[in-house]
Amino acid sequence: MIRIGILGDIGSGKSFVAKSFGYPVFNADNEVGKLYKKNRKIFFKLNKALPKYITQFPIKKQEVTRSILANKNNLRKIIKIIHPEVRTKMNIFIKKNKKKKLIILDIPLLLENKINRKKDILIFVESKKVEITKRLKKRKNFDFKILNKFRKIQLSLDYKKKKSKFIIKNNFTNGFIKKQIKYILKQIH
Questions:
Q1: Mean pLDDT, 10 residues at a time, over the chain (189 residues)?
Q2: Rounded CA gap, 97 and 161, in Å?
Q3: Which of 47, 85, 109, 174 has its CA 20 to 30 A from that of 126?
Q4: Partners of 103 in the beta sheet?
Q5: How many Å apart are CA 58 and CA 186, to the nearest integer?
Q6: CB neighbour class for 60 (10 Å; exposed up to 12, middle 13-18, buried from 19)
Q7: Global pTM?
Q8: Which pLDDT score, from 0 to 100, does residue 20 have?
Q9: Is the backbone of residue 130 left (phi > 0), alpha (psi -120 to 50) or beta?
């Protein structure tokens, strides 16, 4: 099985590119959303770690955001609780898809959390800053302060780009992305 890791800036279109491959995708952000909505155990752990902020189940994203903005150490506390669960979900996904020719890992902190393997094929999604900002502004309840806190815990984009075997230039048009994916698939098969 070939594992492809998708890297790039927040809002660069990583999830869109990941889905465009047409292979099973593990989307860490979706998994986190499910944990907030459906996992009471996670709620109790977060409530114990951040009782002033995480007060109700299902967990509201605004509460998480408020806690992160209040204190940068809160982000570390959240990561410590959430990431082991996400990693477990990822391992289940990989096991479930072990007979597939290819899987896509759409995990924002793939390199930071050392989730990638040496043989993984890393692809960097590159987008213009103007496009990213325009797209992020359209997101419901988006907060640029949070964006900057997340960027601080991430490795530099230049580093991620250097680590990548391929770069997909995302101009947010389907045909353009498909063409680049087709080229990459030819190279790795």
A1: 95 94 96 96 97 95 89 90 95 97 94 88 94 83 80 89 96 88 93
A2: 27
A3: 85
A4: 3
A5: 44
A6: middle
A7: 0.91
A8: 95
A9: alpha
Q: Is 4 left (phi over 0), alpha (psi -120 to 50) or beta?
A: beta
Burial of 18-57, coded b for 16+ CB within 10 Å and e otherwise, reads bebbebebbbbeebbeebbeebeebbebbbebbeebbeeb
Taking residue 188's Cβ as centre, other Cβ atoms within 10 Å add up to: 12
Q: Give the model's pLDDT for residue 136.
A: 84
Predicted local distance difference test score (pLDDT) of residue 112: 86
pLDDT at 129: 87
